[in-house]
Amino acid sequence: GNVALDVARILLRPTEELATTDIASYAWTALEGSSIRKVYLVGRRGPVQAACTAKELREILGIKNLYVHIREDDLIKSPTDEEEMKNSRIQRRVYELLSKAAASASSQPMLGQRELHFVFFRKPDSFLESNERSGHVSGVHFEKTALKGGGPGKQYAVGTGEFEDLDCGMVLKSIGYKSVPVNGLPFDNHKGIVPNIRGRVLKNISGDSSQVENGLYVCGWLKRGPTGIIATNLYCAEETVASISEDLEQGVLASSSGLPKPGREGLLQLLDNRNVRPVPFSAWEKIDSEEKRLGSLRNKPKEKLTTYEDLLKVAT
Questions:
Q1: Full-prediction pTM beyond 0.85?
Q2: pLDDT tens-digit map of 92-103
Q3: Domains, the chain, ordered by start
Q4: Residues 6+ apart with CB under 8 A from 38
Q5: How far apart are CA 158 and CA 156, in angstroms?
């Protein structure tokens, strides 16, 4: 997915290029001293099912002097894969970029060249502990997988019973976060979401639009699962807000007492009663301005404030 690509890109991109981005200084310092030169991106399914965008993929493939390796066998498509690509321009474009990268890559990396290896159809079975450093990883024991399922977009990975080891010194997982149930709310354990229609929470997981919990709404990953990019979150929020607006206009949210609800002032009072200190937009603007000022001193777009104390100090 996109997060995995982001992590790999940060680990592999030359630090002299990162120095002029808004990366936090402490992170840049750690990367400057890093000895990482080879990254493996491992996925349970195939390149057709890669859950990333073409934009993110192009960014990492465009890193200067980067050796990219993709196994030819992993690029073989099934008829179901072909159908899946016909139905998705994004998946088709991602596959094309991966195929082009594989075709244009040299057979071996040059001396000192950083390496990115895409490995598909593998799922982790166990971590291998280092014999030299107790408590440290020395590799991952993978099981090879094959795709099963009922058609395009519904293929899933199953183990084949064949295993292989991959040597490494660090493992990072990037498989999304499954939401947990909220007390008192229905929850779809399979999808990891609160059942809803356009953000309106349902009374159960049946999907029946007539079974709506009036006045209760959901947004984000709890609404749709751990998918998408920043723009997806914007659309998701807009959809839920639109549902709230519609319900307000139709009187669905009328107070049972007949009195008007306290609205924003009521929320602020509730936060105050609970000793919660909100940061208004005007305070965020102060933070944004200070980060830009600090960044200008280092030829960066921003110098991020990374502690709660520093953020509040600037916000007040």
A1: no
A2: 999 999 999 999
A3: 2-167 (3.50.50.60), 196-254 (no CATH), 281-315 (no CATH)
A4: 114, 115, 117
A5: 7
